[in-house]
Amino acid sequence: MNQTPETASNLLANPPPELQRILDDPRTTDEARQAVKEVSVVSPPPVQNGLASTPKEPNGTNHSGEGRLQIVNEHQEFTKQLSPYLDKWGLLDKGFAYDVVSVFGSQSTGKSTLLNRLFGTTFDVMDESKRQQTTKGIWMCPSTYGNTLVMDVEGTDGRERGEDQDFERKSALFSLASTEVLIVNLWEHQIGLYNGANMGLLKTVFEVNLGLFGGGGDSSKPKPQEKTLILFVIRDHVGATPVSNLTATLTQDMEKIWASLSKPSHLADATLSSYFDLSFATLPHKILMPEKFEDEVLELRRRFTDRSRSDYVFQPSYHKRIPADGVGFYMEGIWQQVLTNKDLDLPTQQELLAQFRCDELSAAVTEIFLASSKIVRKPVEAGQVVEGLGALMKDWLDTALGKFDRDASRYHAGVYQRKRLDLLTGLHASLSSLFLGQLKNLHKIETAKFSKDIVRGTKEVGYDFAKVVNEGSDNARQRFLDGAKEVKIDGTDWEYEHELALLDEDLKSIADRCRADETKKMVNTIERNVKRQLLEPVEVALSQPSVEMWNIVLKTYKQVNEDAEQSYLTKAKAYNCSEEENNAALLSLRARTWLSLRRKLEEQTSDATILATLRSTFEEKFRYDESGVPRVWKPEDDIESAFTKAKEETLSLLPIFASISPTSSSLLPTLPSPESTFDIESDPIPFDPSTAFVLLSPTKILSIESRFKREADAAYVEAKRSMVSSVAQIPLWMYGILIVLGWNEAMTVLFNPLYFAMILVLGASGYIILQLGLAGPLLQICKTVFYEVKRIATDKLREAFKELPENQKQQILNTPYLSNTLNDGLKNEERKKGDLINEKMIEK
Length: 844
Ligand SMILES: Nc1nc2c(ncn2[C@@H]2O[C@H](COP(=O)(O)OP(=O)(O)OP(=O)(O)O)[C@@H](O)[C@H]2O)c(=O)[nH]1
Fold this sequence. Notes:
Helices cover 60% and strands 6% of the residues.
């Protein structure tokens, strides 16, 4: 609020209460009454838009005639008018030939009065009748006595601002940093007080000043321009306490607060005198001793104007070395630095209390909150997905914040809001680990479920792999998203996208792995089919050796191979296999089908199989005639030439088995590369072009040939024997003799009722046996019984023979029938042994 102008006459006619009190006081001397009138007369004019009109000058005219300027207003904005005003005041072109002085002190301690008296400035002076703040913000006015810029600063500790010390800190720091001389204005009775003498404020300001403007390097040697003179002006000095005592107290206080400053580490050893010079002045009571006051003011003014004096205040070392035309910019810069400095944002008592209580309340609710969240922490850490975790967390948060709001909202609103935010951030931070844990667990569980879904899906009949994978993946993703959204707390910056991306990667790799397995399974099935399809044609072809044999085999192989590849490609579409995967699978399939063929051929060209084939071919040629009828060798037949022909023709087929050799080489398949799992080291034959098509080595051919020849020879011998036996059969006339000689016996039997009945029974039995088709089995049983009886009888005979003395043995051996029977028994035994050995060899 700016003061309303009042003339001296008005004031004297209607003096304000304070003025009236002084005037009415009987102790007031005439001089004092006169001084009161003078004070009233010099009340300053009103201020408009930061620029006051030119006041009445108490001690001469204003330096520029352009009044004063509010350089920082109540809203802490720095004026843009400083340079134009410096120009108007005639100071802009002064270079370094100017000085800056400012004042610091409690509100209404006569700062403006002192400045007006010292420099002839026109700052507002308090209206005694209202007793309220006069100077708001920071004002500047040129001195009437020399090129001095004088700054009047809003007083500290004013009731208008109450606990808000923000502006007084900023303005004090600004004054300290931008001026050469800082006048600390204080009543004599304030000396020795801590807050009363603004020591707390000075301490803060010194501290920040040191941090902000203290400079770097060697703190013990500050640059001259960094120094500032602090001039203590002790007001209303009555003289009871000697000046030396007052100055000593102030010096001690200053040293004390300097020592207690928390200095930047590089300025830890900096002393007060490195940055500040202290000076002192006293002024008597302005109202009670006006003349003396004026004299002292005059004397003090000389310290600002008389360069010859030793106590001249504007020493070059205090000058900031800023040319006058840069002062506007420089001061604005300092103000901006001061404004943005956070160190000055010190809390008020109310704020301190709020901080303390809010911290306490915050700690209490956090403790309860942590205890609640502990229940789920273990399961989450153990990898479990806690159902409804999001709702639980929201509930804990609401409870904690509700309690905090109820108790803390009664305190300083700003602090409460700040602390609430801190609390919320802390609680969110504590919950974020649960959030992340839950996401990880969801991820883990969903990947496991996905694997199971695929396994289950691929077990179903006629499953579509791509469908199984897509459905499983979509379900897992959806479940994860539902869980993640549920556990995310509103108002947090928590994200689940990263975990979702990891889940997608895992699902894909599982699907890829399963697809690879499925493809392998499919290739295995196709391989089995190939084997089955090759089995019969190859066996048939190789059992009927001819020059066309390999053509048939290879054509079949080619066809089966093409079918297999086509079958794979058709099925692979459903698996979403890539081109690369398809190529790899086809290569593997080719290698396997080739190996299947090769193995089958190896099996079909084993010694025993080839021998069997040759034997049957030989038998066909030797034992059957051209029309396929079994031959009964007669004495007139040419067994030798038939045998030789059949043997040679059969042997000529043997080289066909030696290697896969079609009539046209174009039928030979291209050899595939073996699979990576195939042990090529231990079995290189199937994939080596020089051996892959060879089935029998020359040595083997020779061995088979010789074995075959032996067998063929045996067949020849048998044929010969059969011819002899056919020659040795009973002649027909023998049957005629038998009938003639046995006629009587037959009639006897026919006409005897007993024999006839027996014949009838036997005939009927024979008929029934024939009708039921039991003749064969019965005959077999009879044969078996006969042979068994014969074998037992022979064994018994042999045992009995062994036990006989040697001479009797010899006798029996000379008996033809008995010796034959015994020899037959022995031969049978040997033959059996030989057959066994033969069978074993064939098996091998
Ligand atoms: N006792 C006493 N009163 C004084 C003295 N100087 C000024 N006053 C009175 O103190 C009152 C305040 O004076 P101002 O000059 O406005 O004080 P200020 O410190 O500038 O006030 P703000 O700018 O509001 O902080 C006025 O009524 C002056 O008459 C002094 O030396 N002694």
